[in-house]
Amino acid sequence: MTPDPASAPGREPDVDLLVAGAGGGLAGALRAAQAGLRVLVVDPDEHFLRGNNTSMSTAMIPGAGTRWQRACGVEDGPERFLADIAAKTGGTAEPVLAGALARLSAPLVEWLADEAGVPLHLVRDFNYPGHSADRLHTLEGRHGSTLLRHLHARVRAADSTYLMVPARLVHVERGPADPGGGLLHAVVEDPGGHRETVTTRAVLLATNGYGADRAKVAARLPEIAAAEYAGGQFSRGDGLALGLELGGRAAYLDAYQGHAALARRSRTLVGWATIMHGAIMVDAGGVRFGDETRGYSEYAAALAARPGARGWIVLDRRIHDLCLPFTDFRQTVAADALVWADDAAQLAARIGCPADALSAAVAEQTALATDASTPDRFGRTSAEEPLHGPLAAVEVIPALFHTQGGLLVDGEARVLDREGVPIDGLFASGGAAHGISGHGAAGYLAGNGLLPALGLAWQAANVLAGSPSAPLRPGTSQVAGRSAH
After folding, report:
1. What are 347-370's pLDDT values in tens digits?
2. I want to staple 296 with a disulfide (CB 3.0 to 4.6 A). Which of 272, 357, 386, 485 is the partner?
3. Is 220 helix (H, G, I), strand (E, B) or coil?
């Protein structure tokens, strides 16, 4: 579609919703299309199906109180999820958004399966740090690119949705005939510099955070500034800037998701499932330096502070096999990033660290796995089973995946102005919104990226499809009678 750039007062808008960002924003585009709304999606990355943060994720979506949990006898619900968020963030997560996302998580996951055609299942083989119940849902391969392809296919099949790729949203303003509300005028630019103005009832800023802007990262996140950036190249804070121009307010700009398990050789994700199944991490000298299970996000800064800012994840064949369901891990294996040896001493020789140090680290794991009552000097409480030879090590470096702070939004994804009043027609999701991870990296729970990315986009469409006096809530059916495409 090439929207009509005319913007005469009183004319119908070109579209009902303009979505800036073809990652989690596609959930909002699809939900709006199902409600009979006309939707335009713009994204500057022609390779968005494998180049944005949604596509790079492990496709872990938390849902508290889903039918998959009930079928497995897992007791969970929004209040328990909210308590886990509060515990992980030390009570610093913004409560309105945290509560809203906890409540909509289960309806979102079930909508993804039932209406978006995503073949989800409940992850039961291990728990990520901070989740007190099995509530993460994923799909075969456990990779975001598969999730995104499902959403993209449904969006492309909807008659009322249009994609302009590559194209970037560069400006939004209120129409001259609409001083207090009405249509938004969105300026979209292609790589050649050609601009079009699109009139729309609403704009959803789903452009992720600012992780690709190294200057902003250095200023706001100095502890992780030197780490590898492993996110989308177009995550430069565009949504944040546009929202601020329209009177929005920013919050939690010091929040981010780090990761301590990026393979140095292949730049693929080893994954924290290795750790949760009993692997350990040592620094370049073969020494453990903390409780690895406390969280992969905060452990990135801990790894960055070690000599050479690098380390090794040490695992065995059992752990290797348990992690093969992850596409990322299989890619790491295929890249020959794992070094194998018969025992700790031989492995130390192969990776170039002191044998006594690595042997001592493995012995600590063995003691913990053999007798959980034996206190670990760093407070780690579980290791599943003792490491048995042959052993493998994969060299890892710290990484920044995405920022978690952004525009302050309410529980319906509406961007708030400096007085806390929703800005008419303006929504934000994912890394463009302020998130639920509190401050820094330690508050990040697995799924804290995808839940706001998918959930807030979905909720923005729900609100836009409902009447202003009674916006659509998760689990209601206000749009059920409208035409779906």
Report:
1. 999 999 999 999 999 999 999 999
2. 272
3. helix
Residue 162 φ then ψ, to 5°: -135, 145
Written as six digits, the tokens of 252 are 């939690």
Element (H, E) at 64: none
Residue 239's φ and ψ, nearest 5 degrees, are: -65, -40
State the pairing for strand pair 15-20/39-42. Answer: parallel
The full DSSP string for 134-157 is --EEE-TT--HHHHHHHHHHHHHH
Q: What are the structure tokens assigned to 68, written together? A: 């998959």
Residue 375 makes CB contacts below 8 A (sequence gap 6+) with: none
* Burial class of residue 50 in the structure, from the number of CB atoms within 10 Å of its CB (0-12 exposed, 13-18 middle, 19+ buried): middle
Helix (H) or strand (E) segment spanning residue 232: none
CA separation, residue 457 to residues 59, 222, 447, 452 (Å):
16, 30, 15, 8
Over the range 372-392, which residues count as b (16 or more CB within 10 Å of their CB) and which as e? Answer: eeeebeeebeebbebbeeebb
Tell how far CA 28 is from the center of its chain: 16
Res 340: pLDDT: 98
158, 165 Cβ separation under 8 angstroms? no
In the numeric block, the tokens 């009570």 are attached to: 91
**The dihedral sign for the CA sequence 358, 392, 284, 386:** negative
Q: Token pair for residue 391?
A: 């052993």
Beta strands 39-42; 161-164: pairing state: parallel
pTM of the model: 0.91
> Cα separation of 133 and 85, whole Å?
12
State CA 110 to chain mean position distance. 18
pLDDT tens readout for residues 237-247: 999 999 999 99
pLDDT in tens, 102-145: 999 999 999 999 999 999 999 999 889 999 999 999 999 999 99
Omega within 30 of 0 (cis) for the link into 95: no
> Does the pLDDT value for residue 471 go beyond 60?
no
Determine the 3-state secondary structure of 101 from DSSP: helix
